[in-house]
């Protein structure tokens, strides 16, 4: 798999040579090497269930520290991976790491967290994707039912028959599907109706304005009601302040994710955080 990544990067490099006279993308080459060596890490950000104040889920987020440049933002290296034929290797690495690490966390603590995994449109347009995903679950023992694939609205704008068929095949395996960054793209209500969607993740940029704009507050209320009526969960992304948290609770939002409740962190830190929360709960109630 890793060799395939390196090969893909070399092939991509060759492709570029023809285009721009010898310039191979340094970042793509270094990312391919990092994938070969397992140097791309996965961090987990807590997702809080509002009704219980419990961390019931996490989002898996890829992390890469370049040997010379330092940490590279995922938005940047995911785009590089998409452009250089590395996204399949990156996506599979992240999914495999995620399932392996959360299975170990479950074995150690008895806690089974639901996990959001970001998926690129390129992965979804590949008809072999569901088979490769199924192999990861078979190898790691992690249940497909506890994975939520996060896809963006823009991806669904460019929806192809293959991607939609893939989404249905993944659903048949037991996975859930979330619309990520909801409210930033060109939202289509008919797609909310026709596509198999379990969760709406309301984008950070929208959440940022809910406490200062009464109209945004009303829109948020309507989104929560719409999701509820369609049987979808709502996750508010980028929750940073207690004021936002209070407002989200008052409109009946079911889940929250953001720095207020925890940053993305390595699995060991996540385990320590969960154990500390449990301890606080025991002291508070017992
Ligand atoms: P996303 O899926 O919307 O992930 C949420 C982003 O919001 C993350 O940025 C997270 O660190 C950040 N965030 C969380 N809480 C807060 C908050 O309270 N305030 C603010 N300002 N930001 C917050 P990150 O980790 O930089 O990832 C950026 C994007 O890169 C992700 O957006 C996702 O689209 C993409 N990405 C990350 N990992 C992967 C991956 O494994 N595969 C793919 N295809 N894309 C990935
Ligand atoms: Mg996401
Ligand atoms: Mg998002
Ligand atoms: Mg986002």
Gyration radius, to the nearest Å?
20 Å
What gross morphology would you assign?
globular
Report how far the terminal alpha carbons are from each other: 50 Å
- Would you tell me the structural class of the helices and strands? alpha/beta
Order of helices and strands: HHEEEHHEHHEHHEHEHHEHEH
Give an overview in words.
With 286 residues, this protein is α/β, with parallel strands linked by helices. It has helices at residues 2-20, 26-36, 74-83, 87-109, 121-124, 129-140, 153-157, 161-172, 189-194, 204-207, 214-229, 242-250, 267-285, and strands spanning 41-49, 54-66, 70-72, 114-118, 147-152, 176-182, 199-202, 233-236, 255-256. The termini are far apart. Residues 13-24 have low confidence and may be disordered. The site of one magnesium ion has 5 residues, from strand 6. Residues 24-278 form the EAL domain. This is Bifunctional diguanylate cyclase/phosphodiesterase. One of its GO terms (molecular function) is cyclic-guanylate-specific phosphodiesterase activity. Keywords: Membrane, Transmembrane, Transmembrane helix.
